[in-house]
UniProtKB/TrEMBL annotation:
Entry's Gene Ontology cellular component terms: cytosol
Active site: 265
Pfam families reported in the protein's UniProt record: Aldedh
Keywords attached to this entry: Oxidoreductase
Family: Belongs to the aldehyde dehydrogenase family.
Protein's GO biological process: gamma-aminobutyric acid catabolic process
Name the UniProt record assigns to this protein: Succinate-semialdehyde dehydrogenase/glutarate-semialdehyde dehydrogenase
GO molecular function term, any single one: succinate-semialdehyde dehydrogenase (NAD+) activity
Position of the signal peptide: none
Keyword Membrane among UniProt keywords: no
């Protein structure tokens, strides 16, 4: 653990871990190497984190495998009690966890506090679900047979998580895995390992046994080797990943030789449609939440806004007024800030590229459209009008605070445009016509549809996408299914 002076004040400084966690031990890299983590608001180095690799990952898999037998043998009720202690500890330490998150991820402290509660909700939910695993008895076509179906934990799971939700993407994977009786080896993103390691510290205090939850921190280069080991291992039975579609494809490919089960939460290109019968003020509020949460760095962010011609000017005007009045860019720790920095220079470059491409092709900058005066990784909340389908921001996930607004006139055509993508994660629309609500919700080729709301995520909802946005669902009553196998037992000679 670190004993050097921390860059922030924590009530409990022992949550600020820089070593990885394998088999209940805090460990450094075999070669003692480290990587730096910075504060995206200032660029200041906030930690040197041990940089683990392939050999340490093999040991973590081995530990998870050894722990698996005893963990799965416990009752669901027993596992639930331990998860519940983890949940209580996360909430008891919520302020420290939020401080760590804003420090390494940059999001406004209010959003970090919200994410800790959101992340904890998955631990509570799956602690409850651990007690509710059931099987089935089927009517046999043969009178002398009896047919049973049991649910069993799949075994050792690998989890790879992104930087945009450094807490909730971990709990949304680890909690259902542990509840089901699986053990886990998790690799967080290079940019946000501290939140993951703090969660491991609390897991240890909660009594999660050695080897059941292991965390391997690594920089981007070593992450590739870690990923290869996790995918190639015949011991690992499942990979669960949140991140970009290209990396999802790599993991799928790497897992083919060992025929693993995969859950993939990948990129999105969410359409946000405002029909002419919509409540425009509500649509503006929904667009702000959906587009600018986490500075536009979520996979369910509205990426493409389609607004009916009859309300287009009114919508843009109201959106611009609201963005100016409610969004404040700055350091996530500063008072009243709602928009932190982007995660790194590459993220800023991607946003700049999308805006430049749009402007070059004829888009009009309604507001923003440039780096914020604060400099660094801060980018102005941006609205673009006169947008066309050929622009990059309409074809690729921008992952930044840019709202391209397109005019449409026809319901069938806008559905066609919304569906004209390889992605299928979240979609949104605003309408007060009940017939249209059903028609459009059914026609959108997406895993999730928000109707008259821009915020759809919670622990009860099945989160996930169709097409190349991924495989499987997280959270909800279905979230443990991906961590369990069905076993059919046939009793003969009755
Ligand atoms: N669906 C979503 O929620 C997310 C989507 N994205 C999208 O992806 C874009 C790029 O973001 P980025 O952070 O690069 O996302 P990545 O998909 O590259 O990273 C997500 C996670 O995967 C790890 N990873 C990357 N490559 C490999 C590999 N070959 N083997 C094993 N693990 C790997 C990363 O580790 P490391 O950090 O060490 O490289 C990180 O833990 C964003 O602009 C956005 O469009 C990004 C994050 C989340
Ligand atoms: O962006 C992601 O990777 C997850 C979306 C956050 C959420 O709404 O759960």
């Amino acid at each position: 653990m670190t004993t050097t002076k921390l860059p922030i004040h924590l009530q409990d400084s022992t949550l600020y871990r820089t070593q990885s966690y394998i088999n209940g031990q805090w460990v450094a890299a075999d070669d003692a190497s480290t990587f730096t983590v910075d504060n995206p608001s200032t660029g200041a180095i906030i930690a040197k984190v041990c940089n683990l690799g392939a050999a340490e990952t093999e040991r973590a898999i081995d530990a998870a495998n050894k722990a698996q037998k005893a963990w799965r043998a416990r009752t669901g009720k027993d596992r639930a009690a331990i998860l519940r202690r983890w949940f209580d500890l996360i909430l008891a330490n919520a302020e420290d966890l939020a401080q760590i998150m804003t420090l390494e991820q940059g999001k406004p402290i209010a959003e970090s506090r919200g994410e800790i509660v959101y992340g904890a909700s998955f631990v509570e939910w799956f602690a409850e679900q651990a007690k509710r695993v059931t099987g089935d008895i089927m009517a046999s076509p043969n009178a002398s047979n009896r047919m049973l179906v049991m649910r069993e934990p799949i075994g050792v799971c690998a989890a790879i998580t992104p930087w945009n939700f450094p807490n909730a993407m971990i709990t949304r994977k680890v909690a259902p895995a542990l509840a089901a009786g699986c053990t886990v080896v998790l690799k967080p993103a290079e940019q946000t390992p501290l939140s993951a390691l703090a969660l491991a510290e609390l897991a240890e205090r909660a009594g999660i046994p050695a080897g059941v939850m292991n965390i391997i921190a690594a920089d981007s280069e070593r992450s590739i080797a870690v990923g290869k080991v996790l995918c190639a291992s015949p011991i690992v039975k499942k990979v669960t990943f949140t991140g970009s579609t290209p990396v999802g494809r790599i993991l799928l490919q790497q897992s083919a030789p060992t025929v693993k089960k995969l859950s993939l939460e990948l990129g999105g290109l969410a359409p946000f449609i405002v029909f002419d019968d919509a409540d425009i003020d509500a649509a503006v509020d929904g667009a702000i939440v959906s587009k600018y949460r986490n500075a536009g760095q979520t996979c369910v962010c509205a990426n493409r806004l389609y607004v009916h011609a009859a309300v287009y000017d009114q919508f843009i005007e109201k959106l611009a007024v609201k963005v100016r009045s409610v969004l404040k860019v700055g350091d996530g720790f500063a008072q009243a800030v709602t928009q932190g920095p982007l995660i790194d220079d590459a993220a800023v470059a991607k946003v700049q590229e999308h805006v430049k491409d749009a402007v070059d092709k004829g888009a009009k900058v309604v507001m923003g459209g440039k780096a914020h005066a604060l400099g660094g990784r801060f980018y102005e909340p941006t609205i673009l009008s006169n947008v066309g389908e050929d622009m990059l921001c309409m074809r690729e996930e921008t992952f930044g605070p840019v709202a391209p607004v397109v005019k449409f006139t026809d319901e069938a055509h806008v559905i066609e445009l919304a569906n004209n993508t390889e992605y299928g994660l979240a979609s949104y629309f605003y309408s007060r016509d009940v017939g249209r609500i059903f028609r459009v919700a059914e026609a959108l080729e997406y895993g999730m549809v928000g109707v008259n709301t821009g915020l759809i995520s919670n622990e009860v909802a099945p989160f996930g996408g169709v097409k190349q946005s991924g495989l499987g669902r997280e959270g909800s009553i279905y979230g443990m299914d991906d961590f369990m196998e069905l076993k059919y037992v046939c009793l003969g000679g009755i």
